[in-house]
Fold this protein.
Amino acid sequence: MLKDDIIKAINDAGFDEYKEISSKDLIFSEDVFGECAKNTCGNYGKNHSCPPLSGDMQENMARFLKYENGIIINKIVDMGEFYEKMMTATKEAGDALQNLRDLLEDKPVLIAGPGGCRICKTCAAIDNEPCRFPDKRQYSMEGSGMDIVSMSRKFNMIYNAGDHKLGYFYIVMY
C-alpha cells in the first residue's frame, strides 16, 4: 500500500524514471562524502542537513539504512547548450521534489535529493543555532555519501541524457 502511494506520488509529481531497490543496494562512498568538505555548493557547515552538521559518514548512512526499501527517482532536465538554462532546470527539478514532498507529507518516508535542506529561508546553522525543524530536515543524497553516478549505472538509469540534458536524482526510503 505505501509503495503504491509512493509510486503514484512520483508519477503525479512529474518525474521521468524510478527504480525500486532494497536499502542494501545503496552505494555510499567516502570520496563522495569527502567532497562536501570542499564546500563547492556552499552548504558545508552552513546547513543542518549537510556535513559536518548532519553527522559523520556512519551517521548519514544509518539514516537511510534503517529503512528496508527505497525508490530512486530521476528528473531529466535541459541545461541548455552552454548551461544557460541551469537556473530554470534547477528550479524545475526543485519544484518536482517539493511537489513529491507535499504529496507524501503524511507518509512514513525519508525523501532526499541534491543539495541541502530548504525548509527555512536561512538555515539556523548560519547563526550557530539548533535546527528549527529537526523532524522535517531535508537531507542531501551526496551530502550523506551516496554515489549517485555509480547507482545510476547499477540501476541502468539516465544520468547524462545527451543533448545537454542531465538527470537529477532523488530517493524515497520506506
Notes: The two ends are 11 Å apart (CA to CA). The longest strand covers residues 69-78.
